[in-house]
Design brief:
The complex is a heterotrimer of chains A (about 150), B (about 375) and C (about 200).
Chain A lengths: L2 E2 L2 H11 L4 E4 L3 E4 L4 H10 L7 E10 L2 E10 L4 E9 L6 E3 L8 H12 L2 E3 L24
Parallel strand pairs in A: 1-6, 3-6, 7-8
Antiparallel strand pairs in A: 2-3, 4-5, 5-6
Chain B lengths: L7 E5 L11 E7 L2 E8 L7 H5 L8 H5 L6 H16 L5 H30 L4 H21 L8 E2 L2 E2 L7 H23 L3 H7 L7 H6 L5 H5 L6 H4 L20 H25 L18 E9 L2 E9 L7 E5 L1 H5 L3 H5 L4 H11 L3 H5 L1
Antiparallel strand pairs in B: 1-2, 2-3, 4-5, 6-7, 7-8
Helix pairs in contact in B: 3-4, 4-5, 4-11, 4-14, 5-6, 6-11
Chain C lengths: L12 H18 L9 H9 L5 H12 L3 E2 L6 H9 L22 E5 L7 H10 L5 E5 L1 H5 L22 E3 L6 H16 L6 H6 L1
Parallel strand pairs in C: 1-2, 2-3, 3-4
Helix pairs in contact in C: 3-7, 4-7
The chains are: A alpha/beta (about 150), B alpha+beta (about 375), C alpha/beta (about 200).
Chain lengths: ~150, ~375, ~200
């Protein structure tokens, strides 16, 4: 049975290594700062006892004042999972670091988020529109698209 | 004097004579060897995630049918699991057993098409495909008895299933189960030691276990690379922990192993249906759920093992009648991440086979 | 030729994408009204009251008994089309067993699936490549009017008749293979009424 790790316990481990990077931690998820996202992701992938080597999905949610990018990680070896979120408060040019260097499975999913929400991922090898055609104006899944 | 070659770009366009749908690949070739490949899709983007924000929780079920249209019952199942997790609804026993039987039958039907289309790509032009269709028609008859539809069923509901099984269903299922192992043996006799299949598919398009885990592959493709991970065993949902079945894996991770993996999984599904048919109780088939569901504020991720991989629904609710955000984790799109690494260095004919062995459905990629 | 590392294409993919995007935007701007029904000629013929000759009847019989469909199946209705070709509902008894991959050798286009604006120029190009006489059957709710996805206007074309002229509409989501066969028989009756040789023009010469 896949155990969903408690956000608070993982937050304690992360705070030891990267102090001040956890914004809030609840029972089932963990919110981190955008700047330390890449370091925390690398720590989660390689640390002993955590070893999250499988990325289930990457998606984004549009709350009206910020975007929340949600990552769900799981470890096939220890059979546990964790949800990590990062909040992006800029509506005009939101940007986040890309995790394709760590988990290649995020490749197409980050392109999809760029296409439908407009969030840029720095470090992505090929960031361009994937579902809609080049020259389409707007980002459909935002709440203020018609 | 050495011959100087130049790469050229070939467009294998959205309309092509295979049954995988509107999928386009821009292939850079050096002679006949594939040097690079760029998949282009989006030709079937219908905006299902945006439409889901405007429909009630029960009204999204017909939309989920049209995602992976070959295995509609499984899509409904994943969505209903996510909503039940979000709203805390318990499903009655008989409904759980019906869901498992229907889901495993649907898995057999979808794997039949996957194997048939793969053999179609290998060059056995339509003969095994039509043989598989003969079996699929029998399964579709059973589904028509239950839900009235042949392809997009809209049968499962939040809290159970929509109507009880008719009386003819279990005897007809018994007849099907008696016949099916004989047909599986017939296909094996025709295909397993076939020289052409072995020559074309063995050793082609190898995917190692580390690459597969890094690319978030799931489903038969992952298990054919040697990783023993099946959500029905490792994170059981519904009542799968009561059944006794194996999780086969294959050592090499080439196209032939993916084909063998799908055939083995069909046999395991038959085992599960046998056990479920013996244990099915009587009782209500649907929990008492209001028509307009108001789940509490929160989020949930419900996932199942679909014939293509791990299909999951991530739902965010804000206590209204429609979800705030409904994200679908598509196994076909994520399995395609590995296509580029698998294909470079092979020839064009091998590209078709490797692409066919990943088994995608464009309705799920583009949503 | 050595293999470059992934991520550097030999061609410029951004320029190719931009050109295609321009084609799609142009087509979207042109397709605001549905294309009128190609059955206008029936009204005139009833007024002129010209009967079909036996040569016409022979040509029409040949054409309708061996319609060859072109492949255009984006979505779910495709599987009902394949099931119609399958062992139980056999389409080859109507002469339609060959699914031609090349549109130049086909005369019937059964559009089975939702049409999106990104796909629309390709469908128009395939329709243009088919040789006269050619017919189109719109199969399924998505092909008639956009179906269950019509509210997603940013991506879905509300019906194939914005892009190509349609002869027969077969409703259903997806229509059963028997419904598709009924639609094909309606098309065959329509072909039987076609006027190929204009006797008046021939007699005038």
């Amino acid at each position: 049975m896949t155990v969903a790790l408690s956000g608070k316990e993982v937050a304690i481990k992360i705070e030891e290594k990267f102090p001040g990077s956890v914004v809030e931690s609840g029972l089932d998820n963990l919110v981190v700062k955008v700047d330390s996202l890449l370091d925390i992701a690398r720590f989660l992938k390689e640390a002993d006892g955590l070893e999250f080597n499988y990325l289930n999905f990457v998606t984004a949610v549009d709350y009206y004042d910020h975007f929340a990018v949600v990552y769900r990680l799981s470890s096939l070896k220890h059979n546990h999972s964790l949800t990590v979120k990062a909040r992006c408060y800029d509506r005009e040019n939101p940007a986040l670091p890309s995790v394709t260097g760590l988990w290649q499975g995020a490749d197409f999913q980050e392109r999809e988020i760029y296409d439908l929400f407009g969030i840029r991922f720095e470090g992505h090898p090929n960031l361009k529109r994937i579902f809609l055609w080049e020259g389409f104006e707007g980002h459909p899944l935002r709440k203020d698209f018609i | 004097m050495a011959v100087r070659t130049e790469p050229f770009v070939l467009n294998m366009g959205p309309v092509h004579p295979s049954t995988h749908g509107v999928f386009r690949m821009r292939v850079t070739l050096d002679g006949e060897v594939v040097v690079d490949i760029e998949p282009v899709f989006g030709y079937l983007h219908r905006g299902i995630e945006k439409l889901a924000e405007q429909r009630t929780y029960a009204g999204i079920i017909p939309l989920t049918d049209r995602l992976d249209y070959i295995s509609s019952m499984n899509n409904n199942f994943a969505y209903c699991l996510a909503v039940e997790k979000l709203a805390g609804i318990k499903v009655p026993e008989r409904a759980e057993y019906i869901r498992v039987i229907i889901s495993e039958l649907q898995r057999i039907a979808a794997l039949l098409i996957a194997v048939g289309a793969f053999l179609n790509d290998c060059g056995a032009f339509f003969t095994p495909f039509l043989y598989m269709f003969r079996e699929r028609e029998r399964i579709v008859d059973l589904f028509e008895m239950v839900s009235g539809q042949r392809l997009t069923y809209n049968y499962l509901r939040v809290g159970g299933v929509s109507q009880n099984l008719p009386e003819e269903f279990l005897p007809a299922l018994r007849k099907f189960m008696d016949m099916m192992p004989r047909f599986m043996d017939e296909y094996d006799r025709l295909l397993q030691q076939n020289e052409i299949l072995i020559a074309r598919a063995k050793g082609v398009g190898i995917l190692t276990a580390e690459q597969a885990i890094n690319c978030s592959i799931s489903g038969p493709v992952l298990r054919a690379s040697g990783v023993k991970w099946d959500i029905r065993k490792d994170d059981p949902y519904s009542i799968y922990d009561r059944f006794d079945f194996d999780v086969p894996t294959q050592p090499a991770g080439d196209c032939y192993d993916r084909y063998r993996q799908r055939v083995e999984e069909m046999r395991q599904s038959l085992r599960i249906i046998e056990q479920a048919m013996k244990q099915i109780p009587s009782g209500p088939v649907r929990a008492e759920v209001p028509h307009l569901i108001h789940p509490p504020v929160g989020e949930a991720y419900g996932r199942i093992e679909c014939p293509k991989g791990e299909l999951g629904f991530y739902l965010v609710s804000d206590n209204s009648i429609a979800p705030y955000r409904c994200h679908i984790r598509p196994p076909s799109l994520i399995n395609l991440t590995a296509l580029r690494d698998m294909v470079r260095g092979w020839k064009v004919a091998d590209l078709i086979i490797i692409f066919g062995s990943i088994d995608i459905t464009v309705g799920e990629i583009d949503r | 030729m050595e293999m470059k590392p992934a991520g550097q294409y030999v061609y410029s993919d951004i320029e190719l994408d931009r050109e295609e995007g321009q084609v799609i935007a142009d087509l979207k701007a042109k397709s605001l009204e549905p294309i009128p029904d190609p059955d206008q000629w029936l009204e005139e013929e009833l007024q002129q009251n010209i009967l079909l000759t036996t040569v016409d009847a022979l040509i029409n019989w040949g054409r309708r008994s061996s319609l060859w469909p072109a492949i255009c199946f984006p979505a779910c209705c495709a599987f009902e089309l394949i099931a119609a070709n399958g062992p139980r509902f056999d389409l080859s008894r109507f002469g339609m067993e060959i699914m031609r991959a090349s549109p130049r050798q086909a005369d019937l286009m059964i559009t089975a699936g939702t049409l999106t604006w990104k796909m629309a120029p390709n469908v128009r190009r395939i329709y243009n490549q088919m040789a006269e006489p050619k017919w189109v059957i719109a199969m399924g709710a998505c092909a008639i009017s956009g179906g269950i996805f019509a509210s997603a206007e940013y991506a879905v074309v509300p019906g194939y008749n914005r892009i190509i002229p349609v002869d027969v509409y077969v409703p259903g989501c997806p229509p059963r293979p028997e419904a598709l066969i009924y639609g094909i028989q309606m098309l065959q009756k329509k072909i039987a009424r076609r006027k190929n040789i204009d006797m008046r023009k021939m007699l005038e010469r």
